[in-house]
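USER:
I wish I could look at a protein chain and see how it folds. I am handing you a single protein, as its sequence and its fold in token form. As I understand it, each token names a local backbone shape. I hope you can help me see how the letters and the tokens relate. The protein I mean follows directly.
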Amino acid sequence: MAAQSLLSSSFNFKGDEHGFRVCKSKSKPLHFVKVSSGHKVRAQAATNADSRGIEIPKHWYNIIADLSVKPAPPLNPRTFEPVKPEDLAPLFPEELIKQEVSSERFIEIPEEVLDVYSLWRPTPLIRAKRLEKLLGTPARIYYKYEGVSPAGSHKPNSAVPQAWYNAQEGVKKIVTETGAGQWGSALAFACSIFNLDCEVWQVRASYDSKPYRKLMMQTWGAKVHPSPSELTEAGRRILESDPLSPGSLGIAISEAVEVAAKNPDTKYCLGSVLNHVLLHQTVIGEECIKQMEAFGETPDVIIGCTGGGSNFGGLCFPFIREKLSGKMNPLIRAVEPTACPSLTKGVFAYDYGDTAGMTPLLKMHTLGHDFIPDPIHAGGLRYHGMAPLISHAYELGLMEAVAIPQTECFQGAIQFARSEGLIPAPEPTHAIAAVIREALHCKETGESKVILMAMCGHGHFDLPAYDNFLQGNLVDLSFSEEKIRESLSKVPQIVS
């Protein structure tokens, strides 16, 4: 009682079924802080992460509803006809298939999913004042920080609902792939929450360089295999042709899909690219719109990194909705690595989502399903294709894209870490580099633009990449024209 009395001098408490929830502070801005029991309290916000009145969104946003030109449908890999729901049934539960093909503007988030989200959402929107000062820019820089999730990234936003929908339909086991390890970690966490078995094929180059990501997944109960592996036909074929293959996301997807297709009690989960994955990630942008309003700001430029596209779409799609309705007019910029430039150098065509050609064909920007990025490339932005919805938005002129070499990205990451304190994952370093370019341009022109950035995760398990950079061993990689031509020659010729 004494402790309650002391706290009550600063906060107004209200009881509910979870215990006490602080409702109102008498002084400073408030922000949700999560405690290990799962109870929620309101606490004084750190610095400038103002979240007054911000709640976890109750609905996911589906951008398809607001596009005047609808995206092309996925095609059956055998018949080349538009896929039917029954074609996807061996891989996904019914509710996720419905979301994949839905044209509804908003889809309600289940209460059970919201309950797990409440462990870390809403996530903070933070103004990078120290970075602004370091750069000497009149621009105001904000970043939406998703690294506060249990897995340290934005990936649980989709892993949790995917695991829940599978559990609801009686699925016992989920299989997946992972590149940098962010998605595998998130799905392992989600499966532990809903008592599902989880098996992960991790790209070999990442498996070898990131042992702590593997241990993280194993701690949450997942089995982890390096990909390509001897456990699948797809993996064995790759190893026969290249015993030292560093792997790729396309190869790992083939392995996981093969296992799911052969086992009736097993389903497959994907961490990016597909419509329902980007749908789940829109909790990021929906929160951010409200947070920017609380700051009294409207973004002039929105920047995010793109690999498969989930974190970029999650932040930007709700803002594109606002742009289409005439409420704001931000420039939206995707940033990808020069080593895997699907948007800026790929072709917009139907291609397989995996290397073995087992998945549906997707209309997307692709480097060819055979494309394998150099293993020296740091981070997880290594997928041969871009999410069909992001590719479609790019074709419609709703956004732009740039590719940035990795040494510039890590130079920006060091500046960010030494000013803001957070060590970014290699993926958002691409967004940081683009933000620094924009902020320095504002310094030259005197413009006080508002720049919003997607900070999709921390880099605590990616420190070997920082070590390579700090030791001078990280080099810039550019795509090989010959390598891409060879890979693109194998893209199916579909007349659409």
